[in-house]
Each structure stands twice: as C-alpha cells, then as structure tokens.
Amino acid sequence: MNILYIIAGTGNFYCGTCLRDHALARGLRDAGHDTTVVPLYLPLVTEAPVEGEGPLFFGGINVYLQQISSVFRRTPDWVDAIFDSSALLRIAANSAGFTKPAALGELTVSTLKGQRGRQFKEVGKLIDWIATQAPPDVICLSNALLSGLSAPLSAAFGVPVVCSLQGEDSFINTLPQPYREQAWQLLRQSVADISAYVAVSRYYGAVMQAAVTIPSDKLIVVHNGIDLQGFSDIVHSSYPPVIGYLAQMIPGKGLETLVDAFIRMHMQRPKSGLRLRIAGSLTPADRSFVDGLDRKLVEAECRDCVDFLPNINRDQKLEFLRSISVLSVPAVYGEAFGLYILEALAAGVPVVQPRHAAFPELIESTGGGVMYDAEGPDGLADALAALIADPERVRMLGERGRNVVMAQFGQDHMTKRFLTVLESVTATNEQNRRQDHG
Length: 438
Fold this sequence. Notes:
By secondary structure, the chain is α/β, with parallel strands linked by helices. The protein has 2 domains: 2-226 and 412-436, Glycogen Phosphorylase B (Rossmann fold); 242-409, Glycogen Phosphorylase B (Rossmann fold, 3-Layer(aba) Sandwich), CATH 3.40.50.2000. The chain has 18 helices and 12 strands. It has helices at 16-30, 60-68, 77-83, 86-93, 105-112, 120-131, 150-157, 168-172, 179-190, 202-212, 255-268, 287-299, 314-322, 339-346, 359-366, 377-388, 391-408, 411-436; strands at 2-8, 34-40, 138-141, 161-165, 196-199, 219-221, 242-246, 275-280, 306-310, 326-327, 351-354, 369-372. Helix 12 links the parallel strand 8 and strand 9 (306-310). The longest helix is centred in the C-terminal third of the chain and has 26 residues, at 411-436.
C-alpha cells in the first residue's frame, strides 16, 4: 500500500500527537508499506529521523502572509521558498505567540476552507507535488485541523482520506467568536469527504462525534502506542520518593496544580526527602509561566527539592523515567489521550491522575495507577501521599502497568489496528470504483 501521511510540525518542541504520528509512520513503513510523511506549517521535531519525508508545504510564514495580504497569494515559487526555509521557520516557531490560538481565529477558518480559503495557492502546490509521486492508495491526516485538505485531495486523486482525532477541541475552543463556531461548522462540512476518523481514545471519539456529527460507521478507536525500545531496561531505585512530570510545561497540563500539591506535601513533611522532577517541552512563549512557578517554589523554601529539565531528548527521557517513583500530569482540560501515561508505565512507573477525560480509560485498561476526584492541589496531594507511603503498592502498580503496556500498547499493536482501518477504506474505495465502471 502507498500511504501519504500529512503531519503538522511544531518547529521547536516535542508533542504527544507528533510522537504518535511519527511512531505510526515508522510502524507502517516497517510493516512493508511505502509511507511518505509530508510536514505542514513548521519543521517536524522527532525523537528519531523520519524516513521518506517529503518537502514542507503550507509554510507557517507564507500561510500567515497570504492571510494578511493578497500580494503573497500571487508570489512565485522562488519567493515562497525563501520563507519556507527551515531556518526562518524555526525562528518563527521560537517567537512567543506565533501559534497562540487567540491570534489565529481567522487564519484557522481560512485554512479549513481549503481551496476556498486564502491559502488556495498552497493547496495547489501540494496537489501538484503529489501528482509527481507514486499514486497514493490512501491519504492520512494527522488531525482534524487539516481536514480542509480532504475535499481537494480526495477529488484530485480519487483515494480515501483518513483523519486522526487527537486533541483538536482544546485548540478550537480557545478561538474567539465568531471563528470558533465557524471552525466547528467547517469540520462538520468536511465529514462527507473523509472516509474514516481514527480517535485515540473512546472518550475523545465520543467528544468529537458529538461536536462534529460523525456517523458511527466512520468512527474507529485505535489507542496510541509507543516505541518500547529501551523501556524494558529501566530499573528504579525507589526511595527517597521522587514525583515526576513529563509533558509540555504549560498551564493546561496542570503543572501549577502539581507544584502546589508538592509544596503542600513538603510543608507537611519537610524532612521526608521528597523531590519533584519536571521534564518536557518548554517554548519561549511559556517561559514566564515556568518562571512564576520557580518563584513560588523559592517562596515556599523548597526550590532545592525541584529539578526543571526542559526539552529533553529520548535518551534523557529514559534516564528521567529511571529517576522517578511516580508520575502525575494533572491536565485540567479534556486530555484526548496522554502519551506520557504509556511512557511512564512502560518504565514501571505508576501514575496518579484526575478522574476525567481519557485518564479513567487508560488507567482501567492498564491497571497501572490511581485516580483522585477532588479538584485542585489538595486532592492530588492526598492521592500522591497515600501512594508513595506504600512502596509495595508503588511496585505492584508499576509492574502491572508495564506488563500491560508491553503486551498491548506498543508501536506494532497500534500499527496493526490502524492498518485494518486503511485496508477497509481502500477496499471499499476499490469496490466503489469497480461499480462505477461497471
């Protein structure tokens, strides 16, 4: 099968959706399918090199310039190529606020319009390039914010389009009106052009099915999987206990809640030796938020007990997971999945999560953690304190979670389930084509 996989890049940080998409593309290629990854907007940031990567389209600078001025909708390719250079795009990605949702309402709506939007030239360039390659059997979109491409690509190549669902609502719902509702309406209109939606959890599939009115026969749930290489070698030195956080350092992931919970635990037992290690992506736009947490820890006289580890690579991530006893990322919004849960459990580290969004689904499936109900830092502090006070339970939950993740949540398992979706839509498309030529 010839698969074209279109992925939005971040330019300067790792994200869970990107890690999932890259792992899936590698898995499809390892399974013997020709898979070409096409980055959009910004360069891809990956833990491992991406094989079969095509040129970047819809470069973030060009997309923005085309939005604000008709002049840039008519510039020649050589001018566009200057603005699409990796160096300029990475500089743009490092600019605070470059991708802030509040400033992107009109732009988001325009790109969701596809050929009817102000970025119509970019759609044409992508179609022209695909036409020079081996014909795709199926086209995969990494998220629904790319669904403006579904109609023109399906029409141009006569192949099914499969769209993943993995956290789009948290972006769309921060857009100002009227762009928020316009974006949702455009997503509803694109349903007819998409052959199948692949949601990363039952929870998030239900959220998007209700919001976008997706027919049940078009919605399939395929849980995320991770590259398990290196995780089985992790051995922990359990005490003194270390609480870990592994996610983007932003308010929505609940980092401030975790810091407040840690401060409370430290004040209650100042000589316990308890530590907090915070790892994950940190962009210039979020530096002031993290600086505020740093000041809070200084004021609470426990800054020496906390490590900040921004922008770690894969090897450093494995070392980080080796150093912690329990992990918590108490996201305050409706997390579609939470890849960090699989990474922690694969390392034998149990998790403590709020009882909402996709967390109950994952913890019940893996048996590798505990949940708490009370909102805010107090409920989290109580749950963390109860768990780390019982080292045998920590060990048991971590071992159980690791066994399940190793058996059911690897990259190969995700790939096999995703492939069944691709095989189904391509078979249906071929059947329909034969009937049309009847």
